[in-house]
Design a protein that fits this description.
single chain, 345 residues, alpha+beta, Alpha-Beta Plaits, 5 domains
């Protein structure tokens, strides 16, 4: 009970756990506070200034995402002054952002667009700053379009906090600040692992996948690329897999994916050279065969070879239990220790 803190948010008494921020407490209690830089996966940052609140006895307008709750705290999330300041902040952000939302591929799925609508600030009072920022399309899976970037820092923090890579950071200062790699190298020449965490957390169209087709439905499944068993949502369009994203409620991966799980599944499934039936070499050429024919041929070959004449290669796509059975079969039945796997590929 010592960890429970009572505070008042918009005249309603709520309970929060010690160590929570005001934003977390408000969200848990059902109060909506606008924000663009806050993310449950990342540490508090306070960059966008949209989540400011009024706290009785505290000077100024602190950001709720960085302010810890305290016993007896009285918080106001909606006042005329707060609404004025929030609209001012988002209008400044919009002035340095493309204005043609209808032409943007992320139209109706953009956090900036949603916050503008919530705050009633669809038009900016400030003149638009038109800068032609370089677009980095060197990565094979996604592009970095700095013209849409709002400098929320989610991509930089995701790369650092979630992956520990630090392939991107904020370069330059003031109005010239932009997300970039060390020495402004292309993404492909940096330490980027192409995991896509930055893409997944970007609230606008600054980081965008090169696969632009939108799924019409999703299917929950398990990633087949290794034995970890990450939960994924496969996006389906016209009976074709077009996207893959992590399932946040899955405790194995908590929504995170590697480059194979996020970008490799659609290409693997629909690759023109993918083998869909067994092939048996006859007269120097591979010919399609049934599974029964292929298994019977393999079984017959086993009887002709023993011990070190045989080598077994297992697959990283199998579960750990499957691979254990394979090596056990190799050593006890075939009598060989020549066991390898493809996990290094």
């Amino acid at each position: 009970m010592d960890d429970i803190i009572k505070l008042t948010i918009d005249d309603e008494e709520v309970e929060a756990t010690k160590g929570m921020t005001v934003l977390e407490a408000a969200d848990e209690a059902g109060f909506f506070i606008p924000t663009l830089c806050s993310d449950p996966d990342l540490k508090p940052y306070g960059a966008c200034r949209l989540c400011i609140v009024e706290i009785e006895g505290m000077r100024g307008f602190p950001t709720s995402c960085t302010t810890p709750v305290a016993e007896g705290m009285v918080v106001h999330t909606e006042t005329p002054e707060l609404e004025k300041l929030r609209r001012f902040s988002i209008e400044l952000i919009r002035s340095d952002h493309p204005i043609d939302c209808d032409a943007c591929p992320k139209n109706q799925q953009c956090d900036l667009q949603m916050m503008e609508s919530f705050l009633g600030a669809s038009r900016s009072r400030f003149p638009s700053i038109t800068r032609e920022m370089p677009i980095d399309s060197s990565n094979p899976f996604f592009s970095l379009d700095r013209n849409y970037c709002i400098l929320c820092g989610k991509c930089v923090r995701s790369c650092d906090e979630l992956r520990g890579v630090g392939a991107i950071s904020f370069n330059y200062r003031g109005s010239q600040t932009m997300v970039s790699t060390a020495f402004d190298r292309p993404l492909r020449e940096s330490g980027c692992l192409s995991c896509g965490e930055c893409v997944d957390h970007c609230p606008v169209y600054a980081l965008n996948p090169k696969e632009t087709r939108k799924p019409t439905r999703e299917v929950d499944t398990i990633c087949p690329y290794c034995g970890v068993g990450c939960g994924i949502h496969l996006g389906i369009r016209q009976d074709e897999v077009v996207t893959a994203r992590g399932r946040r409620e899955d405790t194995v991966n908590n929504g995170h994916l590697c480059v194979k799980g996020r970008f490799g599944i659609p290409e693997f499934i629909h690759h023109s050279e993918r083998l869909k039936v067994p092939l048996i070499k006859k007269n120097g050429n591979f010919e399609e065969a049934t599974w029964d024919e292929a298994i019977e041929l393999v079984a017959s070959k086993f009887s002709n070879y023993k011990g070190d004449e045989v080598a077994v290669i297992s697959s990283a796509k199998c579960t750990n239990e499957d691979n254990y059975v394979i090596q056990k079969f190799s050593r006890t039945v075939l009598g060989t220790n020549n066991v390898d796997h493809c996990a290094r590929l």
